[in-house]
Amino acid sequence: MFTYMFDMGGVVVKDFDVAPIIAKEFNMTREELIKKAGEELLEALSSGKVTEKQFWDIFYKKTGIKSDRYDWWIRFFNPEKYSEVEELINELRKNHRVICATNTFDSHYKFFLERGDYDLFDRVYASNIIGYAKPDPKFYLYILDQEKVEPHKIIFMDDKADNVKTAKEIGINAFLVTEPKKLPEYLTEFENSLNLARSNVDDNR
To answer: Which of 101, 90, 91, 26 is nearest to 62 (CA)?
Structure first.
């Protein structure tokens, strides 16, 4: 029996990239915002190594921007859920364990927690809590250790190719989600392909 592992943004809820809106407030593009922040600082935010206030203090110092605002990430944040995926999760939980594996940070985590979105899952593994972020292999290994399950017993769905790639390298059954509304049928096809592969292995023994 499989454990089903869902990414949050871009899979369970609609893409909630607020970076372009924040960038516009600073008269820059999303790409400029990301570049000025730097990958190291963004990863530190996602893995909980710095708070959002610390993030913006560093960003302001780097860019020379004068502001006492620290709520940018949550200010424009209000993503909708995909009803098709919500129904799928509720159905899966009748017979399977369903968990969430998400890259996030404190304000977004608190938002989903208070709105009750995380109640969909048996357990939530959030990068800001566990200290690792996808696609770091340690993120997945932490979950495997906590769940006490072999990687081939997990089916993982994510909308980022790098996250799927790393999961596959560890041995997790993972696939890229490009159209969340069609996830129920894609999942059925993926499960069928896994069953077929298992059947072929058994036949060749």
So the answer is: 26
Same structural domain for residues 40 and 132? no
CA distance 205 to 34: 51
Mark whether 112 and 189 lie in a shared domain.
yes
Report the alpha-carbon distance of residue 1 to residue 92 in Å, rounded: 11
What are 41-45's contacts with CB under 8 Å, separation 24+? Answer: 43/133, 45/105
Give dist(CA 115, CA 131) in Å, integer: 23
**Average pLDDT of the chain?**
93
26: enclosing H helix or E strand? none
Same domain, 138 and 70: no
CB atoms closer than 10 angstroms to residue 132 = 21
Sheet (strand 154-158) strand order: 123-126, 97-102, 3-6, 154-158, 173-176
Distances in Å between the Cα of 32 and the Cα atoms of 20, 29, 40, 52, 179 are 10, 5, 15, 19, 28
Please name the helix (run of DSSP H) or strand (run of DSSP E) that holds residue 180, with its range, or none: none
pLDDT band for position 200 (50/70/90)?
A: low
CATH code of residue 110: 3.40.50.1000
Rounded to two decimals, the pTM is 0.86
The secondary structure of residue 53, as a DSSP letter, is H
Whether 28 and 106 map to the same domain: the answer is: no
